[in-house]
Amino acid sequence: MKPRALILHATGTNRDQDVAQALDMAGAAPEIRHLNQLRTGAAWSEYQMLVVPGGFSYADALGAGRLFALDLNTYFAEQVGEFVAAGKPVIGICNGFQALVKAGILPAPAGERTVGVDTRATLTFNAAGHFECRWVNLRPVSERCLWTGGLTENIYCPVAHGEGNFRLADPAALAALQQNDQVALLYADAAGQPAQGRYPENPNGSLADIAGICNPQGNVLGLMPHPENHIFPHQHPRFGRGETWGLGLALFQSGVKYASQ
Questions:
Q1: Which of 2, 18, 40, 22 is nearest to 253 (CA)?
Q2: Is 94 a known active-site residue?
Q3: Is 236 known to be catalytic?
């Protein structure tokens, strides 16, 4: 049977249909559910995957992903906690990544989530000071992360955000993330080499070129770019010139494969 994927929809979310299509192509059975529908005792245990998609939840009021994070910690803390602890694949993309970080689900170890909004890590305003909408190269680097483990080719996909600059309150925490293999995806150049902070290869100024991180268990991935928007060869911006490399579908196939075990 296909693994069932629960896609959370908050008011303002606009990439849920895109990620549903990617999951369907990868072999999952996606279901989009508004958060209000889930407050009536929905059985989260019936799902094998959890997705917090991109968009502008609650119009980014009070900060990108902040109100979504409060929803996760206020109404669904037990359900999300059980989902993560069970080792099921969880992914947050763009606004979803922001929500997972501000809810303390990433990058904090299990059992260390905070009440309210977590401030140990954040995704803040782009270093360039404006909204970024461009295609970027992502280099998968984590074997711990079930979503990126085994991926050897760059993913080429768009970013679309004003607050994607990954920062840590304690600079020393970066070494811990790297040593624990929690840095899952790096902004890179076309050859797959780290961007080393160069713009536009690193589109937002993220610390250490970090585009995505996972939790210590490796089942929760958060990333700012949108791999769900490059799942068909014809979506490549230079398809007309014969370029079809860098599909983001492989990322979702990894998650679905794990959930199917």
A1: 22
A2: yes
A3: no
